[in-house]
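quick q for whoever's on today - can somebody do inverse folding on this one?? i tried earlier but teh output was garbage lol. C-alpha cells:
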C-alpha cells in the first residue's frame, strides 16, 4: 500500500520549530521575561506540544489503519530502526558542535554530553549543557516511541473496529489528556522537578494526535457518524482563532510565571491543559485541510521547511550561542529581532545542509529506499474527513509514517 502524505503537517513542523526558536531567543535576549511581548514569547514553547501532537497522529495512524483493514501492524524493530535513523545522526552532530563551540557557565564533564547523546539526561541530575537544553523534549519523545507499540496494541487489539469500539478508544485517549496536567500538578506539589520532564507529563499532547488519527480513519471508513469535529474541520479560521484565544489565556498568570521560577500546582495543571487544547486546534485543520491550506502549508516551501525543521530544532541553540558570542551580546541584553533573524537564517542553512548531505542519504541507505523523503512529493495531498470508498486515506501503507516535527 502506498504512503499518504499529510501535506499541511509539513508547514506545521516548520511553525513548531520557529516557535521553539522564538522562545529560546526571547529568553536569551531577555524579551521573554520582560517587555510588551514577553507573554507571547514565553509561551512559544507551545511548539513542543505541536511536535508531540503531530508525532502522535503520524505514528499511531498506521496502527489504526492496520486495525481497520485487519492487516499486520507496523513491525516494532523496523519502526525503531527508522526512528533511530531519523533522530540520532543529527543529535550526535549537535552534541559535538555544542561541545566544541559553546562554553558553559560552570564545569561540565564528558558524561553530561554522553547522557545528552543517549537522551537519558532527563532521568538524572546532569548539569545543564549550553546548546543542548532543548533536547529534553526529544528524550521525552523517544520515550513515547518506545511505549507506542505497546499502547497501540492495547488500543487496537482484542476486538473488531466497530463504532462502539472506536468510541471506547476515543474515550481512553480523552482520559489521557487529563493525565498530563494531573502529573504536572503532582510533580510541582512534590518539588520533584526532574519528573516534570518525563513522558507522563506530556502524554496528553501525544494523545491529542492519536485521537485525531483514530477519528480521521474512522470517519473516512464510515465507522463514525458526523460530529462537532466535522463542523469544526470545515471552519479552519475559527479553530485556529480558538487556538490563538487559548494561547492568549496561557500568557496570563493562570499558566504560571514567564521565567524559570516554579509554578503553583494549579498553574502547572492549567498550562499543560491549555497547551493540549491549543495543539488540538492547531493540527485539526491541517489533517482535514482545504485546498488553500494544503497549498500554503504543504506546497514546495512547506515541503522543504518540513524536511529541515528537525535540524533547525536541533542546531538552533548552538547557532544562537555562537552568534551572541561573536556579536558580544551578554545574556538578557536585548537585540531580539537581530538574534532571531540571524539564528533562523543560519540554523536553516545548517539544517538544509545537514538534511540533504547527511540525514536523507542515511535514511535512504538504512531503509533501502533510494527515493525516501521525510515529506515526499507526488503523493495525494488532499484531505477529507468524510467517508468515501475511494478516499486514498483509507489505503495508506501500514509501515511507520513520516517523522514528526522534531524528526
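ok took a stab at it. sequence:
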Amino acid at each position: 500500500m502506498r504512503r499518504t502524505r499529510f501535506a499541511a503537517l509539513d508547514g506545521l513542523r516548520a511553525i513548531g520549530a520557529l516557535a521553539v526558536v522564538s522562545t529560546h531567543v526571547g529568553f536569551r535576549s531577555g524579551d521573554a521575561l520582560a517587555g510588551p511581548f514577553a507573554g507571547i514569547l514565553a509561551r512559544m514553547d507551545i511548539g513542543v506540544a505541536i511536535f508531540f501532537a503531530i508525532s502522535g497522529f503520524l505514528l499511531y495512524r498506521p496502527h489504526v489503519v492496520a486495525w481497520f483493514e485487519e492487516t499486520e501492524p507496523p513491525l516494532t524493530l523496523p519502526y525503531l530502526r527508522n526512528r533511530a535513523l531519523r533522530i540520532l545522526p543529527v543529535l550526535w552532530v549537535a552534541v559535538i558542535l555544542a561541545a566544541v563551540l559553546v562554553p558553559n557557565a560552570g564545569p561540565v564533564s564528558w558524561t553530561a554530553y554522553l547522557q545528552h547523546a543517549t537522551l537519558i539526561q532527563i532521568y538524572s541530575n546532569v548539569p545543564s549543557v549550553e546548546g543542548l537544553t532543548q533536547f529534553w523534549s526529544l528524550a521525552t519523545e523517544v520515550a513515547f516511541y518506545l511505549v507506542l507499540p505497546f499502547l497501540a496494541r492495547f488500543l487496537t487489539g482484542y476486538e473488531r473496529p466497530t463504532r462502539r469500539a472506536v468510541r471506547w478508544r476515543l474515550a481512553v485517549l480523552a482520559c489521557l489528556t487529563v493525565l498530563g496536567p494531573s502529573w504536572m500538578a503532582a510533580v510541582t506539589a512534590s518539588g520533584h522537578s526532574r519528573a516534570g520532564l518525563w513522558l507522563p507529563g506530556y502524554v496528553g499532547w501525544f494523545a491529542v494526535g492519536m485521537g485525531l488519527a483514530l477519528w480521521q480513519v474512522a470517519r473516512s471508513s464510515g465507522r463514525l457518524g458526523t460530529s462537532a469535529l466535522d463542523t469544526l474541520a470545515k471552519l479552519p479560521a475559527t479553530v485556529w482563532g480558538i487556538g490563538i484565544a487559548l494561547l492568549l489565556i496561557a500568557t496570563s498568570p493562570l499558566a504560571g510565571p514567564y521565567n524559570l521560577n516554579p509554578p503553583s500546582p494549579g498553574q502547572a495543571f492549567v498550562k499543560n491543559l491549555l497547551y493540549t487544547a491549543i495543539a488540538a486546534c492547531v493540527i485539526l485543520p491541517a489533517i482535514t485541510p482545504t485546498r488553500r491550506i494544503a497549498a500554503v502549508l504543504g506546497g514546495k516551501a512547506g515541503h522543504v521547511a518540513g524536511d529541515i525543521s528537525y535540524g533547525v530544532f536541533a542546531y538552533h541553540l548552538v547557532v544562537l550561542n555562537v552568534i551572541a558570542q561573536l556579536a558580544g551580546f551578554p545574556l538578557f541584553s536585548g537585540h531580539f529581532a537581530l538574534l532571531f533573524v540571524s539564528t533562523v537564517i543560519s540554523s536553516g542553512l545548517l539544517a538544509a545542509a545537514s538534511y540533504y548531505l547527511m540525514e536523507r542519504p542515511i535514511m535512504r541507505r538504512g531503509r533501502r529506499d533510494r527515493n525516501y523523503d521525510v515529506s515526499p512529493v507526488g503523493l495525494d495531498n488532499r484531505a477529507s474527513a468524510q467517508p468515501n470508498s475511494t478516499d486514498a486515506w483509507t489505503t495508506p501503507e501500514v509501515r511507520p509514517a513520516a517523522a514528526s516535527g522534531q524528526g
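fwiw Residues 379-407 have pLDDT under 50 and may be disordered. also The chain has 14 helices and no strands. so keep that in mind when u check it
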